[in-house]
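User: I'm preparing a small set of examples for a lab meeting where we compare how different chains pack in three dimensions. I only have the primary sequence for this one, and I'd like the structure in token form so I can line it up with the others. Please keep the answer compact; I'll paste it straight into my notes.
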Amino acid sequence: MKIVKSLTGMITVLLFLSVSAFAQEKMTIEEWQNAMNGLNGQKTALTKERDELQAEINGFKAVSVQSIDDCLNDIYSSVGATKNDLDNFRRIVGELNGKIMRKEVPKAERQAELDALKKNKISALPEFFDKVHNQIQRSLDAWNDIAPEKNYTVVRGDCLWNIAKKKDVYSNAFAWPKIYQANRDQIKNPDLIFPKQNFKIPNLTEDEKTQYDKMRKNYKPAPPQQTNKADEPAK
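Assistant: Understood. Below is the structure token output for the 235-residue chain.
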């Protein structure tokens, strides 16, 4: 409406200026007529523009505008959800993000929970898309899932081979050199270990796991007369 009023004012000003110019200057009738024709042309153009703007304004007024609630319901229905579904999804996203920030193990379960959220259509909504598909995944990827080193106390009858073979150690007897190298300050001879010695059990790298697994698969038992010194029990 302000634009329409401005155009009407401009038309009035043009007419006023034309009369003032005629009163202040000595013009022939022909010059005055030409000036008036030019001003009338401008008036016609401005009037047309004003009418077009008014028509657009009237068109906008005739458009039915949805309420905010109706708009939100349309958004919810686009993903087959209700407001309660979104509230519940928002809660789950927050809880999962908290678990990852606190590094609540196991990490694999957190990834499975995130994958389930990604498959939910609600995650496609602008409120959740970046959070679920990018931000939380980056936090999960940055989670260092390396287990802390363990310790093992030698008991009578132990040997490095049998210690490495235990399920709660490496589950692979061929990894015994890892224990030996990590405890050289206590183990002078890998064939001789003693009860009550406390050994550090370092984590295996992925390359080491692959190496020792390959050794185990390719292992062929030695002839009966041969013995593996690492098999000798603690005395």
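A couple of notes for your slides: The mean pLDDT is 84. The two ends are 101 Å apart (CA to CA).

User: Perfect, thanks.
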